[in-house]
Amino acid sequence: MNDPNRSLYTVSEEEKYCFDLRGYLIVSNVLCPDEIEACNAALDHFSDKIQTLEAGSLSGGSSALTGSFGRRQLTGMLGWPTPYRKPFRQLLVHPVVVSRLNEFSGKGFRLDHGPLLIKAIKGTEGHRLHGAGEPFSPVVAYHQQNSKIYCRGITVAWQLADCGAGDGGFAIVPGSHKSNEPTPNEVRSVEDHLGLVEQPEMKAGDVLFFAETATHGTLPWTADHERRSLLYKYTSRGTARAVGKYFTPESRHGDWINELPREQQALFYGPGVHHGGQLPILESDGETTWVAD
Amino acid sequence: MCGKGFRLDHGPQFNNAVKGTAGLTLHGSGDPHKPYVAYHHQNRGFHCAGVTVTWNLSTAPAGGGGFACVPGSHKSKFAMPKEVRNCDDDMGVVVQPEIHAGDILFFMDGAQTHGTHPWRNDHQRRSVLFKYASRTANRGGSRPYYKPETYWDEEIVSGMTPEERAVMFGPASPPKTQEVYLTVDPDGTVHLDN
Which of A58, A76, A99, B36 has the CA that lies 20 to 30 A from B95? Predict the structure, then answer.
């Protein structure tokens, strides 16, 4: 996979095999030290904007994932003033990304949300594993047919700091994007993971592609240096996870929509699942249709 | 079929025909796979990304023309033969179901091979089509909102190159415009796939 004679900008058959088999792929040595430094310097410039989550908010009560500190995170890089946004816009359509996503998600892939910087210091809690092949999740579903991969949700995680074996950070159940059985609770909590959870070793400058439908999360950070991982959340062309600015019926269709009863308005919301609970859900008994409480 | 939270992607659309109206070439199929209208079944659950609901306001008798489809084609893993598509030699796989005024037809739009036979009846064809999608799937109905300058806040996309802008379009089924498609040259140059 890391044949020095092979172009970084083409997808090998071995890479396709690994991504299909495991649900993730690491391409090594993509960024040079200067590119890593440019990202880190810009992030440091906006360090006062970093949000620290409350400890316990992501570990979900798991004894295996608990930590003293909450995750630190930052967004908005694409809209920062120049020159700070430049390195993040370059990563957005980096040739290593475009070549892999054209193959894995199909041409016309799009950024759904992000980038999101995930930072952690020693003692930061983990993140309960989430995602699975069962129940089927249309928004991030994985499908392979006739030598073609169709992955609706792929996260591209640029590594801006080393992540050694046992350091913690990104963890995944390889192959789980194809699972047809529910994930045991003890695997999600990593309290008894059946030997299925893997924390891949990565170096600063490496880039990780993973299928969002694979069971994944974060192990507590144990290294002395900071974790720095920059996540771009892509989807295939016709898929929406985030809801965008035009989500409500009124914003999409104008005032006339307000004349409809709630049950009819419910059909005119825009696509996406990150709606924060504001989506009305219809119920019916075959005679009457109503909006669920 | 689509899951709770399903939405109206576009329509309703009135399809009207008089005697002698031409048919519509069959379209849609299981291969190539199209995520935005795909069908999947797992553990006794349906997951159909695109379903068209057709209310029939007049009768389509057997052999009279109108809606036609290839039953089972939403699961096909092979390309549809050209002669099936144009119905010149449909191999006996194309069905034009008999439908009465007041009947309602649900079909898998895009995943299933379907189209229209020429209308041969003295009375008009009258069908009203509602194009539904599952919560996260998009067809053409989201195009009015999908330009980067519409979909994102201004500062996020301001000053972007055409290549950067290409991945900032909102969700919708693949458009004909080349603005959303990227390719990579062997030397690593990324450009629009013209």
Answer: B36
A48, A127: one domain: yes
Predicted pLDDT at A7: 81
Q: Is A134–B43 a contact, with Cβ atoms under 8 angstroms apart?
A: yes
Instruction: Please provide the CATH number assigned to the domain covering B7-137.
Output: 2.60.120.620
Average pLDDT, chain A: 96
pTM of the model: 0.94
In this structure, what are the phi and psi dihedrals at residue B135, rounded to the nearest 5 degrees? -50, -40
CA dist., res. A200 & res. B31, Å (int): 35
Rounded to the nearest angstrom, the gap between the alpha carbon of residue A113 and the centroid of all alpha carbons in its chain is 9
Q: Does A112 share its domain with A191?
A: yes
Q: What is the pLDDT of residue A5?
A: 60
**Domain shared by A154 and A257, yes or no:** no
Report pLDDT for B140.
Answer: 83
DSSP run (H or E) holding A50? none
Domain that holds residue A183: 13-235
Is A222 within the bounds of a domain?
Answer: yes
A-chain CB neighbours of B47 within 8 Å are 136, 138, 141
B34, B44, B76, B184: which to substitute to probe chain A, counting the most A Cβ within 10 Å? B184
* ipTM at complex level: 0.93
Give chain A's domain count: 2
